[in-house]
Amino acid sequence: MGYAGEDRVERTEVDLSPLVLATRLAPHWEARGQFGAGRETLEGVLDDGTGTDAERAAAHGAVAHLAMAQGDLRAAREANEMAIVLYEADGDIRAAAGRRHALAMVLLAAGDPIAAEAHCDAALAVMVAVGDARGEAFARSSRGLVLAARGRPGAGSDELLESLRAFRAIGAIGEAASVLANLGNLSWDMGDVARAARFHEGALQLFERLGDRRGAALCLNNLAVLAQMRGDADRAIELAQAALDAFRAAGDRHGEAAMHCNLGAMWEDGGATAEATASYQQAAARFDELGDPGRAAHARQQIAALRPPASELSPREQEVASLVAVGLGNREGVRSMASVTLV
Predict the structure, then answer these.
(1) Arithmetic mean of pLDDT over the chain
(2) What are the b/e assignments for 122-152, b being 16+ CB within 10 Å?
(3) What's the average model confidence in pLDDT over 148-174?
(4) Sign of the CA dihedral 264, 177, 97, 140?
(5) Which end of the chain is more exposed for a tag (fewer CB within 10 A), N or C?
(6) 3: which residues sit within 8 A by CB, 6+ positions away?
């Protein structure tokens, strides 16, 4: 329900205002990991002050969704709250309830499950009252995650399973896949790695059936981590590489960059320093291209942590390390660095 309300605008593509057009493009930006570009565009047209309450509410909802994907919880909360106010002013209690469900997820991520539960309950009550089966299923899914966070994983699992049944009943395959993934994450948190893997494998099958490469990539990444937890390093790397390929095929550059970072960590855990360094370098370069200096810096910190302290290097190795530090790029320097084997 990240973009609830966008289907309410009854105009031809030719007549779309910049605000409505930008809102409709939000899923495109999300699928390609272009969260910042999408937010900048949406916030720019919102600043113009144009559009009806419903159109502006939908745009704020799209901003909230992209901000959440970025991890900007404050912006996601503020945008969701603004969308709720505008939908309620427009008299659309169903759309407002949809935003409450989204706000609950932001509050949960921010560490406030009590407030999150209140919004889930309010959203669920509205969806039941108006007979919106799809909205009710979304609300139950969110409530399941909140209950689990409040120390009631059994009740949370029951809500998620009820949500799964509801989505299957209305043929909402993509939503069912997302619930399966959430059940996998909950099982993971409860320490049942085998059950978590089964749920993620089920979600992967549905995402692949839909041709949802990004959803499949997320499942493959989770399965890679679970394989690593089981001690199957080779399978973990294989799944992580498949996740990287899926992110790349989906055009999700942010997911691709994050996956390079995850691969770096897996290679590092296996003692493959050269492969880890290469993966972290790829991650840093892509985060630079995406204008994400924080994550780029993190990737470079991981590279630096792979290098042994200078006191542990031989004089020749210290010389090579110095050349690297000053960015020596001539061919002889490269040859000398390649000839050194660190112990």
Answers:
(1) 86
(2) bbbebbeeeebeebbbbbbbbbbbbbbbeee
(3) 95
(4) negative
(5) C
(6) 23, 26, 27, 58, 61, 62, 65
| Separation of CA 6 from chain center | 21
Q: Cα–Cα distance between 188 and 107 in angstroms, integer?
A: 21
For residue 330, name the pLDDT band (cuts at 50, 70, 90): very low
Task: Name the residue type at position 124.
Answer: L
> Which tokens hold the place of 42?
């949406």
Rounded CA gap, 88 and 57, in Å? 10
DSSP secondary structure of 17-36: -HHHHHHHHHHHHHHTT-HH
Question: In this structure, which amino acid lies at residue 37?
Answer: A
Structure confidence at residue 246 (pLDDT): 96
Q: How far is CA 73 from the centre of its chain?
A: 13
* Residue 51 token pair: 């559009």
Handedness of CA 197, 201, 202, 204 (dihedral sign): positive
Provide the 3-class DSSP secondary structure of residue 232.
coil
Taking 70 as the threshold, does the pLDDT of residue 10 lie above it?
no
49-78: pLDDT as tens digits: 889 999 999 999 999 999 998 889 999 999
Joined tokens for residue 68: 């959440």
Residue 334 has pLDDT above 50, yes or no: no
Say what percent of the chain tops pLDDT 70: 85
